[in-house]
From TrEMBL:
Annotated GO MF terms: hydrolase activity; metal ion binding
Domain of life: Bacteria
Name of the protein described by the UniProt record: Metallophosphoesterase
Occurrences of domain Calcineurin-like phosphoesterase (ranges): 3-190
Entry's family note: Belongs to the cyclic nucleotide phosphodiesterase class-III family.
Organism this protein belongs to: Cupriavidus cauae
Keywords (A to Z) from UniProt: Hydrolase, Iron, Metal-binding
Pfam families: Metallophos
Amino acid sequence: MARVLHLSDTHFGTEQAPVVEAVLALARELLPEVVVLSGDITQRARADQFAAARAFLTRLGLPTLVIPGNHDIPLFNVAARILNPYGGYRRAIGMALEPVFSNERVLAIGVNTTRPSRHKNGEVSREQIDRVCTQLRQARPEQLRIVVVHQPVRAVVESDTANLLIGRDAAVPAWVDAGADMVLGGHIHLPYVVPLPTNSGRRAWAVQAGTAVSHRVRGTIPNSVNVIEHHVEGGRHHCRVQRWDYDASGGAFVTVDNKVLELSR
């Protein structure tokens, strides 16, 4: 069985130490194939915040796929934003802004949807759409196929429509038709799972994560992560997404929701 731990919006610089320890404990318990961090790793792209993020990744000790979010580009350091917007990110996290993780059971493709010229809105280009489609078409039949972006591609609250990824109307149907099973995102600190639009009738899903460790939670929703499990049995694909919320009384993450997803093959 493949298992993916989906974190987002850690916002190091606003992290809560007990919640960080709880995420690490959960990762040690579940031992996922890969830990996906779908952007906003830091709060303000400062060196000390990136150092805290690097220490967290080192302590995880697991394969990771990390992409930048809009908070990982300097906001107040205008010179750095213009001349070297990803310098701090690359020094701490790695040179790749669009990493790919692939093993026998999982294909996860990172897409950098940040733009230094934009404050928070994300965008996907035609070149990125086509690149991801090519990678998806090369997937093996047994792999769970994941695309990772920062900004959401579907909203469930009207006020979040302003935060939707620019270019999604072209990207999402193309990716789903090329074989994507799910698109993972963050940005709005609201966890949910909803179907994705498609041109071919394939079943695919948008999977959003809340903030994993930051005190910048949304409303009454606590810190939250997703656990995605997938296995193939008798030629049939079985997939579920579990939402795990932080329980302050117990100092640990607990399962609060379990969705079984239908995949197309």
